[in-house]
């Protein structure tokens, strides 16, 4: 029999921490795959599989169960970590579980956590999404093409929906919006992933400098920031996707030079001779240097570029539009012709 997994519970106010950890040791790990509940086995955990990604907060592997392919994220945590550190590691699991209601965040299937002598082993099972926006950039550079605006529009609208869900439903901000964390499937459905360093807002404000520096908003280098810092990160990501290069690439320069560029230089812009007026204006709004002038999600959803490209999730991949007289270019077809053609 495999070791008992932990059952993730919220730590109640004034609850003894040892009692909290004891409660976590209770429970059973299962996957919910299309409505079918499957017990997680050690074979699913230990089976050798393809590496999908790796980083400071864990490695991600492909897992196959009776023909169903999904992703398994593994995190190993020393058993002697502090209460604060343990909560930091538990955050991604807790948040991912609570995002089931949002189709624009990677789908959560289940988790398995157990403790051995010197460490905790966390396994988070999620849907596997084929492409990242970073892969799209790499492929476009390779074949000498650009990412069209209707694809940029699908990405922008989907990520805004995901970020607004995190803010409105969970009162958290992502803090690491960037192309590698924006995923897309074969039909053009876009999903936000990697919630490992998200932060809970306290009085609508977050602190600490966790994240990827080239995508950080200017206010992230000061005392406090809010959900509009994710708006800036999305803006930088869209500029990178449009121009196929990050506007804040350091080329080996010191980190301080990068921080100065973000904090002191004018915000990145798109060339109006190359891109549409509504995309240029959209980027200009997302990258307002003064956070007070940067729009919140409800305001972003009123911008022309967003209205033009927004599509309810249930319509994505169907070839249909909520407006009968409105024709849309197919993101799925573009993927077939560009990301799937030739060698990857």
UniProtKB/TrEMBL annotation:
Gene Ontology biological-process annotations: stress-activated MAPK cascade
Gene3D superfamilies: Phosphorylase Kinase, domain 1, Transferase(Phosphotransferase) domain 1
Keywords: ATP-binding, Kinase, Nucleotide-binding, Serine/threonine-protein kinase, Transferase
First-tier enzyme category under EC: transferase
Protein name: mitogen-activated protein kinase kinase
Family to which the UniProt record says this protein belongs: Belongs to the protein kinase superfamily. STE Ser/Thr protein kinase family. MAP kinase kinase subfamily.
PANTHER family: DUAL SPECIFICITY MITOGEN-ACTIVATED PROTEIN KINASE KINASE 5-RELATED, PROTEIN KINASE DOMAIN-CONTAINING PROTEIN
SMART domains: S_TKc
Classification via PROSITE patterns: PROTEIN_KINASE_ATP (PS00107), PROTEIN_KINASE_DOM (PS50011), PROTEIN_KINASE_ST (PS00108)
Residues binding ATP, per UniProt: 73
EC number: 2.7.12.2
The Protein kinase domain, residue ranges: 46-306
């Amino acid at each position: 029999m495999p070791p008992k997994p932990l059952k993730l519970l919220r730590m109640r106010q004034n609850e003894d921490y040892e009692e909290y950890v004891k409660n976590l040791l209770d429970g059973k790990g299962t996957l919910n795959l299309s409505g079918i509940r499957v017990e997680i086995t050690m074979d699913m955990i230990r089976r050798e599989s393809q590496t999908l990604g790796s980083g400071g907060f864990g490695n991600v592997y492909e897992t196959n169960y009776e023909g169903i392919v999904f992703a398994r994220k593994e995190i190993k945590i020393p058993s002697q970590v502090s209460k604060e550190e343990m909560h930091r590691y538990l955050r991604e699991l807790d948040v991912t579980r609570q995002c089931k209601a949002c189709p624009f965040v990677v789908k959560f299937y289940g988790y398995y956590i157990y403790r051995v002598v010197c460490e905790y082993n966390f396994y988070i099972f999620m849907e596997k999404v084929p492409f990242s926006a970073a892969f799209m950039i790499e492929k476009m550079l390779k074949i000498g093409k650009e990412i069209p605006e209707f694809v940029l529009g699908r990405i922008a609208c989907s990520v805004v929906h995901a970020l607004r869900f995190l803010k409105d439903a969970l009162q958290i901000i992502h803090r690491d919006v960037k192309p590698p964390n924006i995923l897309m499937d074969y039909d053009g459905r876009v999903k936000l992933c990697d919630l490992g360093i998200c932060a809970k807002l306290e009085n609508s404000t977050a602190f600490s400098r966790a994240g990827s520096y080239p995508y950080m908003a200017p206010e992230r280098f000061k005392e406090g920031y809010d959900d509009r810092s994710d708006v800036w990160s999305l803006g930088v990501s869209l500029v990178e996707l449009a121009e196929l290069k990050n506007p804040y690439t350091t080329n080996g320069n010191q980190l301080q030079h990068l921080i100065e560029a973000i904090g002191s230089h004018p915000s990145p812009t798109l060339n109006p001779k190359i891109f549409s007026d509504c995309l240029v204006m959209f980027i200009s709004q997302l990258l307002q240097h003064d956070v007070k002038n940067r729009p919140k999600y409800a305001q972003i959803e009123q911008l022309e570029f967003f209205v033009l490209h927004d599509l309810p999730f249930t319509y994505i991949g169907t070839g249909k539009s909520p407006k009968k007289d409105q024709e849309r270019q197919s993101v799925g077809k573009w993927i077939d012709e560009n990301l799937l053609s030739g060698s990857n």
